[in-house]
Amino acid sequence: MEEAVGDGVAEQRERLMESLRIYGGHYAELSRRFAAWLGLHSTDATAALEIAAAEERGAPLSPARLSERISLSSGATTALLNRLESAGHITRAREHTDRRIVTLRSGAHIQERADEFFGPLAHRLDATMAHYPPRLLEQFEAFMADLNTTMDSHLADQEKHPARPRPGRP
Q: By CB count within 10 A, which of 25, 79, 106, 123 is most buried?
């Protein structure tokens, strides 16, 4: 490993992490613009997108799972869901045999608006990824899955053992 670091691998990793940070910033800005376009608070728009995306994947969210995905307390998530439901953006359904389980569904207009807003970008991203062979895309998928697992693990550790600021430091 020492040899690889001397070959510029450390610098390559730094460039890659910087690129991921930039991508994350772009994603956050796009999410902010989508929220403004819908006339929603950014947290509400993010929640609506999470609900719609989970539904598209065939794995609709429960309120608890949404709370985890958007990092809100259960009380704040309930208030958010009340706002979205009152505005007709989502519905809460009891579809399971266990009637205590609530499933979140997006309103059809949310998916339509998301497709309208994000569609042009999706086409551009697809065209960009088309330049890469399937095997390389598989490696990217594995790489991103590993990074996400690492981040999830780190966040869980921080939740168990929150970092405390040192006295005398801003």
A: 106
Give the pLDDT mean for 49-65: 92
Domain enclosing residue 34, as ranges: 8-158
- CA–CA dist 156, 3 (Å, integer): 33
- What CATH number has the domain bearing residue 103? 1.10.10.10
Residue 166 is predicted with a pLDDT of 77
Separation CA 76–CA 142 (nearest Å): 34
Please state the domain count of the chain.
Answer: 1
Across the chain, mean pLDDT equals: 90
How far apart CA 113 and CA 45 sit, in angstroms, is: 11
For residue 26, the model assigns a pLDDT of 96
Tell me the whole-structure pTM to 2 decimals: 0.77
